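Work Package 3 (structural annotation) set out to generate three-dimensional models for the target panel prioritized at the project kickoff. During this period the team completed the workflow that converts sequence records into discrete structure tokens, so that structures can be stored uniformly alongside our sequence database. As a representative example, we reproduce one entry of 306 residues exactly as it appears in the project archive.
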Amino acid sequence: MINLDLIQQYLEGKGIIVKELIDNNKASEKYIRTTFIQDDGFSWDTVVPYENRRTGLNLNSENKIADYLMSIKPFFQKEKMKNWIDEQRKKKIIGGPVTSLFFEVLLSLKEEIDTFPQNNNPQRRIQDIKDAGYTVASIPNARNRETSRILLPLPLAGEMGYETFTNQFKARVIRLLCGKNVFEAKQTTKKGLVIDHKFSEIRWDEDTKSDNSMSMTDEEILQKFQLLDNQRNLQKREVCRICYQEGKRGVIYGIPYFYEGTEMWDSNIPTKGKNAEKGCIGCAWYDIERWRKELLKELRIDVDCK
């Protein structure tokens, strides 16, 4: 458990005031509400992530959080923030004109409630912005179920591989996997297929992300990816989030079958990083095709699953 008072002790005399710890369980992110006070008297209130699965940020002690806040304090100087906003307005944001409208709202760098330009999928637009490398804090409000967002003027993180596949690479993956929606066990239209990392990104760290490059061999592609429709891809992300937070592995069709391990995450396996992938093996969602084959073997049903 992180101690807010201890963080403040580390920050004594540094012009940084920490006020509140915030958990966003749904996104598996944690934040600290912070005021940065510069030498010229300019101050800025914001919310800073200290655990962010997308960027691999995982600060698990008070002194590490304090050191991180001190390292990013210069980015919250008045002139630097103004210049940063001007620079971002010149860029083309991934996601098209609708996402650009959302981004323009966030460029206030202040807390914005989800009253963005009318759109039936605001979360998709926020995800586009995050996937472009921007740091956005998503702050839930349990009382009214609203979510507010804060864009931070921090250096852009590397784009996430699962969202930035080129059309050429996507076509290659779909060809190698025979255009098969693995959840439905049949070929479907290419347009509706999403490339899914078998090993969920919620358990990645910096080293894991570097392994997911566009220069993979055919064998590596077959090992790392499966094809799903968007609905099942989102469903899998939710299953993996629960597994990451609660240690309970997911099932498909309510069938509690695991060809390796049990319903519970093996406590001897780390929860994050390359070695964490061992804990996913045997779960239906990790490799749906193999899970189906192993289950059919148990049932002694001779079916061609290719």
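Confidence is low (pLDDT under 50) at residues 158-163.
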